[in-house]
Amino acid sequence: MRNFIVLFVIILASCQGQEEEDHAHDEAGGHITAVEEIPTVDHTVWTGKTELFVEFPALVVGKSSRFAAHVTVLEKHQPVREGKMTVSLIKGDKGIRNTVDAPDSPGIFKPALVPTEAGIYQLVFEIETPSLKDRVVVDQVTVFASLDEATASLGTEEADDGSITFLKEQAWKMDFQTNAAIQKEIYETIPTSGVWKVSPSDYETLIATTSGRVTFKSESLTEGSSVKKGQILMVVSSSGLTSGNLTAEIQRAKIVLDQATAEFERKQKLFESKIVPRAELEQVEQKYLVAKSTYETLNSGYSTGGKQVSVPFNGYVKAIGVNNGAFVEQGASLVTITSHKTSLLEVQVSPLYARELQHLQDLHYRPSSDKWSSLKETGGSILSVGKEVESDKPLLSIYAEINDVVEMPEGSFTEVKLAVGEPRVAVVIPESALLEDYGNYSVIVELSGESFERRQVTIGRKNGLEVEILSGLALGEMVVSTGAYQVKMASMSGQAPAHGHEH
């Protein structure tokens, strides 16, 4: 038992020594520095592909500084899980570098450098993974001549600036996204709704080309089922009927065609021998062509069981107009097929906006429950804008052709915002970034990789996708567009979360 206690004490002392050696966060979210109290430095840089948040002990000549480089892929805000990183410390045309072949943990690379000369340097991080390559540059990085100089310049205590601590490991484990405030044109919008419909050019009704009894060839033929081009859906059979019997009509048409063919071939030889005039040949040829057309029309799609009803294109069954086993007359509607290649959106607007609709510029809609799209961005078009109303139709109708993947079922409603008037160039952010409290708006601004603040903003125009920021946010600042509520709750907890990794 005594030996076990001694062994436990040795292991505990080893763990504590490792914790002191590594840079970590304490339970209050503050940094735990090494025994030598080396000041820490952090930088956050965004590129078009990634976000780099790097923490490291101040660079001092002759001392090793290990970097904790957090690399986030901006799209879907996920950590880099594989690949290598090279860090370079460059001054003029000279420098030192170090490469690590894999992250130490998901999203975190830990290369180290030992500077040899004091001065102002450029710190370069090169990231290479199977799916992306990126180069991140941190300018004006100081290498100090001594630890005392670094301490005098940077200090050892971290100032509490009142920001919200939200760790990268937390963000990586949840649905989280950041976006930069950008400058673009934004329109005044009219909020309304629309109904999804199928474009008339995208569906076709198949009719009975003969009278007879309908037999379904597919056991699972229901509305909404998918069908393939050439697939046989039904057969219309007139077998056993005393009148309008297609089989008998085809046989008669074949006999007439055979006779007309023989007569035409005989007259053609006589014409070539100059025995009969051209007029007589043309008369026989006309009878032959009529007999041929009649036979081919009757025989088209005919099988032993009857007249086949086949699908003209890939698509879905929109409607079935007949029951299995029912008798139908020639020309009756059997089934309607739709391709859903193009969707039609019918939007209804109050006549009070008739003047604004004269300057309709764009239309924003929801192709699915969790997404907004723009007519201009997807290549759709406005087909018509209503000019009149009636007592039973008091609203103006707008029809738009949607060139987009629409996941909403036909006949369902969707939110719509109509962009009207002249555009205004403004600072905009995703509308999902807004937090609202009793009519007041705020956003969560990312100050650095793990530091955020809640900031009041004044908003202007909205278009369903984005919102204009009139004040409170500068161009280029990063806001949390997904997960802002979780960061807000972290600010209300009164305690910064413990860090999930050692540095």
Question: Your description of this structure?
Answer:
The chain has 503 residues and is an alpha+beta fold. Among the domains are: 42-163, Immunoglobulin-like, CATH 2.60.40.1940; 177-198 and 342-482, Efflux pump adaptor protein, beta barrel domain (Elongation Factor Tu (Ef-tu), domain 3, Beta Barrel); 240-304, Helix Hairpins (Orthogonal Bundle). It contains eight helices and 37 strands. The strands form seven sheets. Strands 15, 16, 17, 27, 28, 29, 30, 31, 32, 33, 34, 35, 36 and 37 form a 14-stranded antiparallel beta sheet that branches. Strands 3, 4, 7, 8 and 11 form a five-stranded antiparallel beta sheet that branches. Strands 5-14-13-9-10 form a five-stranded mixed beta sheet. A hairpin with a 4-residue loop joins strand 13 (119-128) and strand 14. The protein is elongated, with a radius of gyration of 38 Å. The model is unreliable at 4-35 and 496-503 (pLDDT under 50).
**Nearest-angstrom radius of gyration?**
38 Å
Overall structural class, as computed from helix and strand content, comes to: alpha+beta
Mean of all residue-level pLDDT scores:
82
Low-pLDDT parts are 4-35, 496-503
Spatial shape: elongated
Short description:
Helices cover 20% and strands 44% of the residues. The chain has 503 residues and is of the alpha+beta class.
Task: Please specify the SSE layout and strand pairing.
Blueprint lengths: L1 H20 L2 E2 L5 E2 L7 E7 L3 E8 L1 E2 L4 E2 L1 E6 L4 E2 L4 E8 L2 E7 L7 E2 L2 E2 L5 E10 L4 E12 L2 H8 L9 E2 L2 H5 L4 E4 L1 E17 L4 E5 L4 E5 L9 E2 L4 E6 L8 H27 L5 H22 L2 E2 L2 E5 L4 E6 L6 E2 L4 E6 L4 E7 L4 H4 L2 E9 L2 E4 H4 L2 E5 L10 E7 L10 E18 L4 E3 L2 E9 L2 E12 L3 E6 L6 E5 L1 H9 L11
